Amino acid sequence: MFKKKMSLVNICILLFIAYFLITLGLYIFQRSLLYHPVVNNYYGEKLNLKIEEVKITTEDNIDLLAWYHKKD
Fold first, then answer.
1. CA 20 to 30 Å from 34, out of 5, 44, 54, 63?
2. Would the pLDDT of 23 be above 80?
């Protein structure tokens, strides 16, 4: 009975150590795990979208610039 309890305690300690090491590794390497997309992520091809710039003037004379894309 004592050996069973001791092995259960050892398993719990090993699981805690493994969890701690994985968490520590994630903390240390968190910057390299981030996704940093490239600015031009469409590989040099032009996007074939017909987008029209629309300028809207509000009642208090603020100019808003928007993009309009007609539904296909």
1. 44
2. yes
